[in-house]
TrEMBL record:
<dbReference type="GO" id="GO:0007018">
    <property type="term" value="P:microtubule-based movement"/>
</dbReference>
<protein>
    <submittedName>
        <fullName>Dynein heavy chain 8, axonemal</fullName>
    </submittedName>
</protein>
<dbReference type="Pfam" id="PF08385">
    <property type="entry name" value="DHC_N1"/>
</dbReference>
<dbReference type="GO" id="GO:0045505">
    <property type="term" value="F:dynein intermediate chain binding"/>
</dbReference>
<dbReference type="InterPro" id="IPR013594">
    <property type="entry name" value="Dynein_heavy_tail"/>
</dbReference>
<dbReference type="GO" id="GO:0005858">
    <property type="term" value="C:axonemal dynein complex"/>
</dbReference>
<dbReference type="InterPro" id="IPR026983">
    <property type="entry name" value="DHC"/>
</dbReference>
<dbReference type="GO" id="GO:0051959">
    <property type="term" value="F:dynein light intermediate chain binding"/>
</dbReference>
<feature type="domain" description="Dynein heavy chain tail">
    <location>
        <begin position="4"/>
        <end position="166"/>
    </location>
</feature>
């Protein structure tokens, strides 16, 4: 009877975690003119979410329940282990993407505050850094991620030029 109750609890957790994973994979709705700092903020938020989920999974309360179900040879643990692995992958991806996007952070402020002429001085090193991310990141090197990032960089450059023209 205890095993059944614990399996019910674990099934509820599994459904909730699956929902979080599905939501994290859905397309983001963003404004058309959003800048690149939003990309870093997105991954930071995702990293915090998955890290707190991992902390909860590693809590002593959850470990006790898993231990009891292992002793009872519960069949539900296969699903749990798969989800645990998926959460770990998602957390690692978010952490890695934050680490790589932080290398661009210094450029984001420069792009937002520069004049069009001084902005162009930073473009080569910005593009070299983007290239480095594409070549070395195990997660962020997809065409989807790169397209999103380059679009946001372009948006920032356009917004900065518009501001410059309106002030001039």
């Amino acid at each position: 009877e205890i095993t059944e109750k614990l399996e019910e609890v674990l099934m509820i957790w599994i459904k909730q975690i699956r929902r979080v994973l599905v939501e994290s994979e859905q397309m983001r709705r963003e404004a058309d003119d959003i800048g690149p700092s939003a990309e870093l903020e997105h991954w930071k938020s995702r990293m915090l979410s998955f890290n707190s989920l991992l902390d909860e999974i590693k809590s002593s309360r959850v470990k006790k329940i898993i231990s009891i179900l292992q002793a009872a040879r519960s069949k539900i643990l296969k699903q749990w282990k798969e989800l645990d692995g998926n959460i770990t992958i998602a957390a690692n991806e978010a952490k890695d993407n934050v680490r790589y996007l932080y290398t661009l952070d210094k450029f984001f402020g420069l792009l937002a505050k520069a004049s069009p002429a001084t902005m162009m001085e930073h473009v080569p090193s910005l593009m070299n850094t983007v290239c480095m991310i594409y070549c070395t990141s195990p997660y962020y090197n997809t065409s989807e991620c790169m397209t999103s990032l380059l679009l946001k960089i372009t948006n920032q450059m356009i917004n900065t030029c518009k501001t410059y023209l309106c002030e001039g």
